[in-house]
Amino acid sequence: MEESKEKAILTAAIHEFAVKGFDQASTNQIAKSAGASKGLIFHYYDSKEKLFEASINYALDFSMKELDFKKWDMEGNLIEKLKGYCEQEFLFCKKYPDIYQLLIAAFTKPPKQLSEKLTNLFTELMAMAPEFFQKVIDRLDLKDDVDTNTLQVVLMSHYQFYSGQSMGYLKEHPDATIDELKPLIDQFLNMLAMSLRGLLKNEDV
């Protein structure tokens, strides 16, 4: 399939799934919005479930490229840096609301027939967090007696708590705005700051 046609189909699918959910989404409307035949869509994606999976993967790849987590610079005040990156994520979600809504719905209320696959995918994404926090730890000027493995566990526990709180809130409030999640972000950053207090040679995190 031509890249432009694939992009048109997946963009239309992301919008349809984000707005209506998996069950109510119409493949006829997706085909119409993409300027493609329904037959062409099912030729490449076989089923509505496969199209949904492809939409999730496309949305994730797009998100990773736009946010580019691996290039985040942790130099300077860590808490301020993380706050800035959280704000960057907020701006991304506001700029691409369909992608945001689709991913939240996929991981909080996945279609039953895709629940196991999406749960496994979410687990894989969560597995990226230790690498991120190791990068954080590596740039900290820690006191000599601080055990970095224990600190890694502490930081991960904060992240898992924050992630659980956020996903739980979004599951209960599927129409929540990005701004409603800011108190959870602030709580997460405060927890990080408190955990690092007394562990650094220079207390300016």
> What is the averaged pLDDT score?
85
Topology as H/E string? HHHHHHHHHH
Class by helix and strand content? mainly alpha
Largest sheet composition: none
User: How much is the radius of gyration in Å?
Assistant: 20 Å
Hey, roughly how much beta strand do the residues contain?
under 5%
Give the terminus-to-terminus CA distance. 50 Å
The number of helical elements comes to 10
Number of strands: 0
Q: Helical percent range?
A: over 70%
Please mark out the parts with pLDDT under 50 across 5 or more consecutive residues, or reply none. none
Shape: elongated
Protein model, in words:
This protein starts with a helix and ends in a 9-residue tail after the last helix. Helix 4 (48-67) packs across helix 6 (97-108), helix 6 crosses helix 9 (148-172) and helix 9 runs antiparallel to helix 10 (182-196). The longest helix is centred in the C-terminal third of the chain and has 25 residues, at 148-172. It is built from 10 helices and no strands. Helix content is 73%, strand content 0%.
